[in-house]
Design goal:
The complex is a heterodimer of chains A (about 220) and B (about 350). Chain A is mainly α and about 220 residues long. Chain A is built from three helices and two strands. Chain A has a single domain, classed as Helix Hairpins. The mean pLDDT of chain A is about 90. Classes of the chains: A mainly alpha (about 220), B mainly alpha (about 350).
Amino acid sequence: MEQVNPTRMELLKKRAQIRLAEQGRDLLREKMDALIREFFKIMDTVSDSREKLELVAETAQRSLIVALAVDDSVALKSASFATRKGFTLDIRGKNVMGVPVPVIEKKRLSRSIFERGYSIIGVSGRIDEVAEKYEAELDLVVELAETETSLKRLGGELQMTRRRVNALEQVLIPDLKRQEKYIETTIDEREREDLFRLKKVKKIIQRKKIAPQSRDRT
Amino acid sequence: MIRVDYGYMNARIRGMKGRLLNRDALERLINKPDVEGVMVELQRTSYREEIEKASVRFSGMSCIETAVRNDFTSAFRKILGHVHGEDAEKYIRILLNRWDVQNIKTILRGKNIHAPAPEIMDCLVPAGELDEVTLAELVKQPDVKSVIDLLATWRIPYAQPLTRSFKEYFERQDLPVLEYALDRFSFDHALEMVKGDAYDNQILRLMIMAEIDVTNLKTVLKLIRDRAPADEAGQYLLKGGISLDLAKLQSLVRTGSIEAAVKQLKGTPYEFLGKVPAEVFIQEKISVIEKELDKYLIKKGVSQFFKDPLSIALAVGYLWAKYNEVTNIRIIARCKTADISEKELREELLYV
């Protein structure tokens, strides 16, 4: 045990520390409950979107294979030159129980055949289908980016809060309680010693008082 | 004008046709368990030389794709060599022009986004009039304008529509403006070249007109699916079809649904589209309908083999048969790499 002064002052300090630690633990537990509620709420939408994404990705992959097979990879790559465009997304942030989570602007990235940058006369419907399905996949990826990042951050915060609660519950509070007990025991011991010492002194004084009287009598 | 020695050309093309893969050979390819098996099987066919050449640089699917593409290109170059200097050369060049259009479009698309030259070169198929050296020179140009200028300097006909539409492209920064001009010109130019009553002209004209019909039908399907206004349809449609004129095509767009448009094709050569499963119309899966149209065109092209042997018909038939063959090989190989079942593979095949 670390060096602790077994004084009444120290005891009062330790009791205040224990009260504060227990208050902190209760607050963190409440935060954890709120984070768990928020986490599961987002997790439902994430698992739905994930399943949808897997389905869309599978059909997109299938369309790509068919287009590569029938139209040749060079035709597909040539069309991809025309459709190659960047896009910007507006990302803001919001606070969920003190955790900063991103809010990505809901923007539809799917385009009509007239917006893809190639003439519709010379590009097959198979290539159009590939573009359409991958654009749909991109829409879902952007949607998932927001929810998955939120989930990751909430998960991280949840883990950190859990560790804090554990540290308070398993280490700090028991330590402080042990110290409180030690101080109490030491103070009690000291009081008992003092009492014993006082009684002893009283006895000596009484004995000294009795001794001169008996000498005078003789 | 030099008289065409169709007897010689006929013999050579028949020889080349004899080397095309028959049903049994395709069945053997389908039965192979993986893409390596397909490659080994192809080495037992006329693709052996190209497979060996391609295997130096590539392996697996890329090797097959490159070999098949090179074989396709060299077959056309061979035919061009047989008719060099003769009147038939003009007809063969018309047939091969589609690759020139595709290559020019690829170069323009690449230059529009400043793609690196090697990346653009990888996407070119020098099967047309513009050979590899010419295409490489075009790819070296720094921007879209320079490519068009170089085409004009070399007096290549495709420079005309591009030069005419460049101003609009420049103002709107919209590449499809150039592509539409090129597409329209390529079909108009081809029809212009086969004017007249000569038998060869008639054969080619009917094929080109059928192709215009099929291209227009595909465009109509896309316009309907994307709910494009019917009065705007005209700018995306080509003139010169055999069975469907612009008024008919616009009326198809006006129906507003793919099923209704297909119903309106009754009485035309395309009424077979009515047999397409109903769910295709509901899901608006136009790739399935396009496949039927492609099959129709291939069948029509391949059927030219049965026309006058001393005409350009044989070359037309061969080109379509070769196109069908390379597409089928590619489908088989791709399906093998993606572990697609044999049943689904057979569904994807174009026309065997």
